[in-house]
Every structure is written in structure tokens, then in C-alpha cells.
Predict the 3D structure of the following.
Amino acid sequence: MSAERFRIVGGARLRGEVRVSGAKNSVLKLMAATLLSSGKTTISNVPDIADVSIMADLLTRLGCTVVRSEGSVSVDVPDVPGHRADYDLVRKMRASINVLGPLVARVGQAEVALPGGDAIGSRGLDFHIKGLIALGATAHNEHGYVMASAPHGLVGAEISLDFPSVGATENLLTAAVLAKGITTIDNAAREPDLVDLGEFLIGMGAKIQGLGTTKLTIEGVTKLHPTQHSTIPDRIVTGTWAFAAAMTRGDITIHGGRAQDLELPLEKLVSAGAIVTSTEDGIRVRMDSRPKSIDVATLPYPGFPTDLQPMMISLNAIADGDAIVTENVFEGRFMFVNELVRLGAQINVDGHHAAIRGIPQLSGAPVAATDIRAGAGLVLAGLVSEGTTLVEDSFHIDRGYPRFAEELRALGADITRESAE
Ligand code: UD1
């Protein structure tokens, strides 16, 4: 299959309705957590994105039978799943690391390839490893793999994270649900995706208190059972549509979007001049004028999500005024700024701050998506650029946004997919 890119002719004001499907950052973690019980678990509201297929391949290699049908996935887990997640799959998708906690807890051992750095910066695993050791496992890095073992089972412990890492909280939560006794996780992540995972585990019979707060208390049980669960809507996709409406001076009704998961980003859009209203089943975002510049600092939830930082920078690039965007989560996340500068954006990056001087209009040019969210931020920038923008490597965008180009077309955008050759 040849590489694809998006061709965008800017200028359209997006109008219409979209429906948000399940959250990528939730469904992949739910799929990994099915390993905690033998038998068949079914997850609905599953987005049609490539990462779901990669997680399905990984679970299949661990001995599970995975069946996908429209909008749902069922995972039938054997009594004794495999315990090795190879590099060829893990390198394609960081969320593969989420099989670590469930495998150690259920199988007593795990060998999971280190995902390595990626285009948004280094993403350590030290909290995951320290936490597993606190739970009584042995765990270390060897030949590019995390090797963890707890042949006699895990034991509850008091764990305190140095930073509310989403991935570490998930891996330790999914390990602790089968540990003997009580585990507490202090400074735990509070992301809605993590709450969804916790509720999924409770559906499997886990005993968890404090979901959505900074302290989780888990009382281990000896066995979990399969369940059925519907994934929460994707708050980052919802936020991307909200930014698209604001940047293009459009009017988009986002069915399924949950305002409560996006309080700060929506407040920021209102400060930029957008009109945000609740609808029966979602959010409507309208904008009539050029956005005003907005300062933002990314932080763990409920702070401004790092995943919406590229959209915020793109908005500021065409806003009225100057803004500072501070990235506190991933140091490499400003890499895409160089692409935005190719569209004429006036941005200076100094360490983890980007200073943006808004200009009335960007000017279309070829650019390359470096990761999912940077790709979406570049597409939004292309929509408000004069002339044609080519966004190369659009496969990154397809990893997180089901039918993005097609949905944008339905809203009035001039965007097509084409072969890069
Ligand atoms: C992060 C985001 C999450 C987003 C996801 C996908 C935060 C806090 N997390 O989750 O909202 O949906 O990316 O883009 O915004 N760290 C360590 N050692 C560890 C684990 C993490 O140093 O063992 C550091 C990372 O390098 C990073 C920070 O902690 O600087 C946050 O990492 P973490 O929350 O674990 O990342 P993800 O789970 O990928």
C-alpha cells in the first residue's frame, strides 16, 4: 500500500454535525485489561482506528481470540495466556505496554518490549517498574525488554507516584486488582480514560475506590470475570472538533462530546471568542470572528491536555495577539512547530515555552505529520491557510481519528486523500 497524504485547500468555514466514537486512549487499555480474566469480554463503542487492530494482533499473539465487528470488539482469553509482547508490535504502538500489569498479575510473568522514545519525547517506564517491585514482583530491563515476574502472586502495597503518570497508574491498577491485600496509589492520574478503565475493572469484579481522585485504594480479589463495557467518548477527538469550529469560524455540533471531560479547553475557547453550548447529547461550538490569542500550560488532567496542545498552537498562529504555550508533559512535543512555521506561522520555541505571534492568515505548503496530534493540528492549520496544504504521513492521523478527512469533507472542508507517490 502506498503512503497517503491529505490535500487541503483552505478557506471553508466548517458547519454541520459530527459524532464522536469511543476514546482511543481508553479502548486500548480496556483491551489489554481483558487479560485479567479467562473467557470472553465484549467492548462496545470501539473506534475504527488502526491502533485497535495492533492491540488485537498483540492479544492474538498472547493466545486470545479477538473478533471485531462494527463498533465492537470481543476478546476471548485462554486460561493461560502467553506472556511475551514482542518489539515488532510494541514499537508500533506505545499502549502495548499496558499488557505488563495484567500479565504479571494473572500469568505471574511478563516480557514486554520497551517501546522506546517517540516523536513527542522520551517516555520512561521507571514508575511502572518501581511500582511492580513494590507489589512484590521482580522487574528490570534486559535486552530491550521489561522482564517482570511474580510466580507466587503480587502483594498489596502503598505506592506513591512522583508524577501522576497515566500509563503507570494504569499498569499498577491492573496489577493490584489481583494482588493479595490492599494497595494504595497516591498521586494517581485522574484522566477520564483511567476512570473508564477503573469502571471496566469493577465490572470484572475488582474492588477499587477513589477513581477520579489522586488516591486509589484497591482491595485485591483472587479472580475476575469477563464483562461487557461501552468505551467513553474520545475527549481529544471532541476537543479537536471544537478547535476546528473555532479556528474556521464555523459551527459544529459534536454529538457524544462530553463537556465535563473538557472543562478547561472549552473555557479557553470561550476566552478566544467561541460560543460553546450544551446540546441534548453533546456540545455545539460556534465562532463568528477571528480568535483572540490564549495562553495555555499543559498539565495532567484536569489541566489542559498535552494532546490538544498542537491544536492550541495552531489556533494561536492565526489569532489576534501574542500567546505563550507551555508544554509540561512531553518535552519533544514542539517538534511539529517547525512544520507550522512552513505555513508562515510566527513561533519561537525556548525550552518548554512556545511564543506565538498571531497573523491573520497562514499560507498553504507541504508539511509532514510527526504524530497523531501534531498531524491533526497541521490539518486544522491547513484549513485556515490560503491555498493548498499537503499533510504528508497522514497515517499518523488515522491512528487516532476515524475517517477524519471524510468527516471534514462532510462539514464543508476541501480535503482529499491521495497517494503520496
Ligand atoms: C500521556 C498523557 C495522557 C495522554 C497520552 C497520549 C499526561 C499526564 N499523560 O499519557 O493524558 O492521553 O499521553 O498522548 O498528560 N514518566 C516517567 N516515568 C514513568 C512514566 C512516565 O518519567 O515511568 C513521565 C513521562 O516521560 C512524561 C510524563 O511522565 O513526561 C507523563 O507520562 P504518562 O502520563 O505516563 O504518559 P502516557 O501514559 O503516555
